[in-house]
Design brief:
The chain is of the alpha+beta class. It has 13 helices and 30 strands. The strands form five sheets. Strands 1, 18, 19, 20, 21, 23, 24, 25, 26, 28, 29 and 30 form a twelve-stranded mixed beta sheet that branches. The chain has an eleven-stranded mixed beta sheet with strand order 9-5-6-8-7-10-11-14-15-16-17, sandwiched between helices. Strands 2-3-4 form a three-stranded antiparallel beta sheet. β12 (about 250) and β13 form a beta hairpin. It comes from Actinomadura fulvescens.
């Protein structure tokens, strides 16, 4: 069955794009008797579909940037394909929604990963991992927004597709490509058609929005962090705010989920789809030399790819979207961006959902279009539609069950310390509000022989390769929201420098896995054209019944106990104080379940994997976790 979305009602208003794009009256008012200027239509604060997608004007422009990333003595150019209402050729001025991507021309799926099994000898590289680009491109912007009076543009990121230059995985040179698109739409950058004719965006209001998922969502963050004038609103979905926090964690080399062994250089090779790619060999070789997979330290190469400190430059309103089950781009990337934007006074909105690395378009379609459409209408057309007065945060508590909040973490959240105490027989230990000293608890790292999932089962029994600490069964729900922290007194003796902590929900339940499944229901959301009917298949969350779930995890390279920028040797067997953060999360532990903290060294799917045998010894009582719990959480744990 196919269903078409309808949105109607009273209160129809037609306004010229020029009027809506600014707060000042439009220049050059239409004289009496002159042909009517094309107009958009606004109904109940929402732009309405009055233009034809089928008749849209298309053009391709090659835009000059300010950088020369391939070092050929010529400024790089980025290629942008624009679709806009045909009325823009008759005086209608419209804003533009840009989706910049390194993926428009596809990827190279045969690039091998770096070795992650550390043996003292040269290890074998891991096999390449292909990307599912269908998950990255929902593909609805033209069908939905062109009829509502927007231009939609697809931009090839630097070094990809029809652009020149070299991909450099997130640095300021790569940001210059997205910035140049905004500059061209504002008349500040030059652009040329394929035949070399210079072209200008005379139809553009200069107001620009950006949207996208993953790398496509990171490019809007990059452009916004540059402070470019004219970028009014962005919707970064599952996006990176610091590449260090994508490929590293607290001094340790760390993989994005599903891409063990990937790094800056591997990704640059994957997306290098420009003509004459050989010109980028030296540039990418320099990435390999400077990314430092030996120490994992934060350095200039990472500072150049860190946008969090640039939040003060952001002029765009930012709607942040992230999956709580996303272990590719981990939640920290969105949460630290969210917090930095708050400190900088940037208009912002947040969606946290139950999927993994995905856009909610296909399982919360109607509300996704309503809110993102209102976001762009508000900031690109200056329509006072009330979107900024709505609750700032949408959280998917369970599949299809959403709730709202004024901020995140939710007001009233308190940090509650829980001590990792020894059990009566040593292991497993207990997790309690009250510290209780006891004999040191030790484990032997399993190295590459066991995964985290294999190590957290049989939680009521001792296991030589992990330490477990558990609360009693809960009597009431306990909601965790924010950034949990670990503070351990521990020693390491062996080759692995990693400390890994898992926060686990123990209790059989049916929970979302992060994956989605098609429901078979077709929903039409926009105007169709040949080979694109403006419809999609609605999805639902895939769930599974299991006795546990890893709620969040955190990692530390013990040699970076004082700073991610500085490696300091540790003495084998000597106890040190270690502090680090888990990944942010929002999760409710149900009555009858138990909270568990599992302590490991190697985390098979994420860390480098040293040979088994490292001894980790933890001092109970003085070792703690700090959990951000909503009101009443501490009382449940008494």
């Amino acid at each position: 069955m196919t269903r078409r979305l309808t949105r109607g009602g009273a209160g129809v208003l037609t306004l010229t794009a020029a009027l809506l794009a600014t707060t000042a009256p439009p220049a050059g008012a239409t004289a009496p008797g002159a042909p009517a200027r094309p107009q958009i239509k606004v109904e109940n604060g929402t732009t309405r579909p009055v233009f034809s997608r089928a008749d849209a004007v298309t053009q391709t422009v090659n835009i000059e940037t300010t950088v020369d990333s391939d070092r050929d003595g010529v400024r790089d150019r980025v290629r942008m394909r624009v679709m806009r209402p045909k009325e823009t050729d008759s005086g209608l001025k419209v804003p533009t929604i840009v989706e910049a991507s390194p993926y428009w021309a596809g990827t190279h799926d045969d690039v091998p990963m770096h070795p992650v099994d550390i043996d003292g000898l040269k290890a074998k590289s891991l096999k390449a991992v292909p990307r599912n680009l269908a998950e990255i491109f929902p593909g609805y912007l033209d069908n939905y927004y062109i009829p509502r009076g927007y231009a939609v543009a697809h931009l090839d990121s630097i070094g990809t597709g029809g652009s020149t230059g070299c991909p450099t995985s997130g640095d300021r040179q790569e940001a210059a490509g997205a910035k140049a698109a905004v500059d061209w739409l504002n008349g500040r950058a030059k652009g040329w058609a394929a035949d070399g004719t210079e072209v200008k965006a005379g139809w553009s209001t200069g107001n620009v929005g950006m949207i996208g998922q993953s790398y496509n969502g990171t490019l809007p963050n990059m452009a916004a962090a540059s402070g470019v004038v004219g970028l009014k609103a962005i919707v970064p979905v599952a996006a990176i705010s610091s590449w260090y926090d994508y490929y590293r964690a607290n001094g340790g080399v760390l993989a994005p989920g599903g891409f063990q062994g990937e790094d800056l250089d591997v990704l640059a090779k994957v997306v290098l789809t420009r003509a004459n790619p050989e010109v980028c060999k030296k540039v990418i070789d320099e990435l390999t030399a400077t990314q430092d997979r030996e120490t994992g330290d934060y350095s200039k190469v990472w500072a150049d790819r860190d946008y969090v400190g640039q939040a003060r430059k952001v002029r765009a309103a930012v709607m942040v979207v992230h999956g709580l089950n996303d272990w590719n781009v981990k939640v920290k990337n969105s949460v630290q961006w969210w917090n930095a934007l708050k400190q900088s006074g940037v208009p912002r909105k947040l969606w946290l959902h139950q999927a993994s690395h995905a856009t909610p378009f296909r399982w919360r379609l109607e509300e996704w279009l309503r809110q993102t459409g209102a976001w762009f209408d508000r900031f690109l057309y200056n329509i006072d539609n009330g979107i900024t007065k709505e609750p700032r945060v949408d959280i998917e508590r369970a599949p299809g069950q959403w709730e709202t909040a004024s901020d995140w973490p939710v007001p009233g959240t308190r940090t509650v310390p829980l001590s990792l105490n020894a059990g009566r027989a040593g292991q497993p230990g207990t997790l309690s509000l009250w510290p209780r000293r006891g004999p040191a608890q030790s484990m032997i790292d399993a190295g590459r022989t066991r995964t985290a999932e294999q190590l957290l089962v049989n939680e009521n029994q001792a296991d030589p390769n992990r330490l477990a600490f558990l609360t009693p069964a809960l009597t009431k729900p306990v909601r965790l929201n924010g950034i949990p922290k670990a503070a351990f007194r521990a020693s390491l003796d062996g080759r692995s420098p990693y400390l890994t902590a898992l926060l686990v929900d123990y209790g059989t339940d049916t929970r979302p896995t992060g994956a989605r499944v098609d429901t078979g229901e077709r929903v039409c959301f926009g105007q169709g054209v040949p080979n694109d009917d403006g419809c999609t298949t609605r999805q639902a969350h895939r769930v599974e019944t299991a006795p546990y779930k890893i709620v969040t995890r955190g990692w530390l390279d013990a040699r970076n106990r004082h700073s991610p920028s500085r490696t300091e040797p540790i003495k084998p067997g000597k106890a040190y104080d270690f502090r680090w953060n888990f990944e942010p999360t929002d999760y409710v532990f149900k009555p009858g379940h138990r909270l568990g903290v599992i302590v490991l060294s190697t985390d098979y799917d994420y860390t480098l994997r040293y040979p088994a045998g490292t001894k980790l010894t933890l001092q109970p009582g003085t070792s703690k976790v700090f959990l951000p719990l909503t009101r009443g959480g501490r009382e449940v744990l008494r």
